[in-house]
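I hope you will forgive my troubling you with a question about protein structure. Could you please explain, in whatever detail you think fit, how the structure tokens follow from the sequence? Thank you for your consideration; the sequence and its tokens are set out here.
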Amino acid sequence: MSHATQGKVSASAVRPMASGRVFNFSAGPATMPLEVLEQLQADLVDLRGGGAGILEISHRGELFEKILQESEDAFRKVGNISQDYAVLFLPAGATQQFGMLPLNFLADGASADYPDTGVWTSKAIADGKEVGKINEIWKGADFGYRRTPRAGELKTTPGSTYLHYCSNNTVWGTRWVAPPQPAAGAWLARDASSDIYAEPLDLKGCAFLYASGQKNLGPSGMTMVVIRRDLLKAPVRKLPSMLRYDEHAKAESRLNTPATFGMHAVGVMCQWILRQGGLVEMQSRAKTRSDLVLAAIRNSNGFWKANAESECQSFVNVLFHAANPKLEPLFLKEAANAGLAALAGHKVTGGMRASMYNAMPVEGAKALADVMVDFAQRNG
């Protein structure tokens, strides 16, 4: 291939969005539906004809009471979450749960099980160890973080309090095919930050679930916590009120002045999901998107290589490399010129990462696959 053809993308590979916006493959904060952004834009100026915007109204006022209830109702309806679970809207992002979870539930002398499947579980393990005994029951680093544990590989700890896992690993592009089974008497805690509401939610056996907002739920800085009500009791140690789940539940997620905009945005996103057809439709679109990109990798005769092993490939984060890494900066430049933004991989992994959450149109995945095929044909 002559150098004269490099740096040029064929016309058929460029599919700009009609709105003029790029296809945004950012891992988070991630793309949001245009109609949701337009509604939030209007609500910033005048919320429901009240003459003030969502950033200006009191979190104790009648209008926000209605907004908050609507957001919780929509969140519950999307996930089919029963009243056996409390739903909390918490600030500070999912990372704060790495410490809050053991602070509330891991008593002195007790332990919890944590399989390490990537960057975020590594951080959760490190924070957990600041509180109590954490049993690292699987080391993904031994397998290059290219897969999650297989049946029979987890050795849970008898008498452990809970088992914490991350169901989808954004940095490495892997997912759990099925939830792990905790030790007898232990309960399951799930970090669902990047795959919540990308597929039907199954809370069977799960007592505690949390997810940051900036991937499938809206803005960054918001965390949704779904917690079985029997866990809402005094924590195992004395804690400030802002670190207690039971206090947040009693205060209806308004223990302090909360992130009112984020709470509203989560509700608007959930209402959008319902209008699209709910989680069955979200799952179908997610599979279509990932299949398009994975097919471009699979059919490239080795030009592209996926990071994750196929049996545990994430359907929302596809991490891939070029067999010749020197071509990756050129690909990223051409992709950006074609309106495909934020494809650079995490700093830990390099390469490329296509994060395709609920708001990513299938057309975006098709456009990426076309550019990948075109690039491989010209540079292979």
